[in-house]
Fold:
Amino acid sequence: MKKEKEGWKDLPIGLVLGAATCLNFETGDWRSEKPIWDSEKCTHCLLCWIYCPDSSIIVKDGKVQGIDYKYCKGCGICAEECPPKVKAITMVREEK
Amino acid sequence: MIVARTGNEAMAEAMRQINPDVVAAYPITPATEIVQLFSKFVNDGLVDTEFVPVESEHSACSACVGASASGARVMTSTSSQGLALMHEILFIAAGLRLPITICLVNRSLSSPINIHCDHSDTMASRDAGWLQIYTENAQEAYDTTIQLVKIAEQALLPGIASTDAFIISHGMERVELIDDKEVPKFLGERKLNYSLLDVDNPITLGPLDLQDYFFEHKRSEIDAMDNVLPIIEKVQKEFGDKFGRYYPIVDEYKMDDAEVAILVMGSTGGTAKVTVERMREKGKKVGLVRARVYRPFPKDAMTKALSKPKVVGVMDRSDTMSTLGGHLYNDARSILYKSDKQPLMKNYIYGLGGRDISIEEIEAIYGQLFDIQKSGEVDKDVVYFGVRGE
Structure:
């Protein structure tokens, strides 16, 4: 069941929230196109990781592991920035 | 200590004694002197303030917001166009509940360009969520500046203490200063339950707030305004008990048996009091109500005051440009809508751009109010008093 939202008397005064609240806001459902990452083609240059505005490229020990679809909005910047000779990321239409 | 000070000097002295943590300001006539004098205090080591000489009033208010959010006691000063340039940040300061204090000098808004007094600048910002206290003289400006810092911090609301351009800001008056040591004691330290600089308890300040929570946050801000009058009263009383000068929310002068009264703000209150005294000597039952606290609008105290006389002339040094007259007039009429003791009311827009108002002119207004009392009719609700060609 969804949590009841607080009434105004229960909110902290002055628009103060805890830190990192964007983790509670799953922006992945905004997506109309989905980036598909090909681990075979990837050279781990990390350009996608640098450019991703939503920190949705999962990297471990300097290697790309995949894409965090919980937060990826499908903007396509990663696919655009992936070097033309590599083309490890392709955008496909989201289908549900 | 009794000294001779202009309104600007008095406000600067108050700021020196308050010794705020941060002052970010940009000069503008006729408030320039306040921060100019204050920057000298900084240079001379008389205060510990971090003084930020910014490149605009928009930046001044923004720097104040950042500093206040970090927990600092923050003040600035401005006037007219400067306040207009702060406009969007005013709402942010209020929404974030940051108790910033502005020492403001009321000056006309351009165009036509003019540096003299009217209340169009603060009136244009009256809905920003800031407390507004209009003062009558340099002494009140000095005292109110000190009070307002405490009021703002207790209510978690920003506030403006204002004087009339040149009339108060540059007029030399007798001012009683409080002992330097007493002011910090009266104010205490600013207390806050969070800080932007506390790395162990990180917070988010001013996040995006959409359909699901924005309304609740605004409601909470409105609630602060609803509850601030008792705080103002308490601080005014504490101030009076300690330093001997008591201030009301609504300043009533000879109202108990007044048949006709004027409602006014700022320095004209002083001129009108002299007029009342002169007319009383001639046996005329005239009274005066001065709106000292204008935001929030003190509806109960004001309703009580305005219910006493038969006729009220509301003097506004600003026009709403809505065809409905002045700001004070509209508020005063609105609170009397449900009153069973509605006085007849007439609005006098006067003194725009610093046009002088004399004792004789105010006496003439009282004369017109007596005519209204006799006829029982207000011929014209809103008149422009002292303008040529009417």
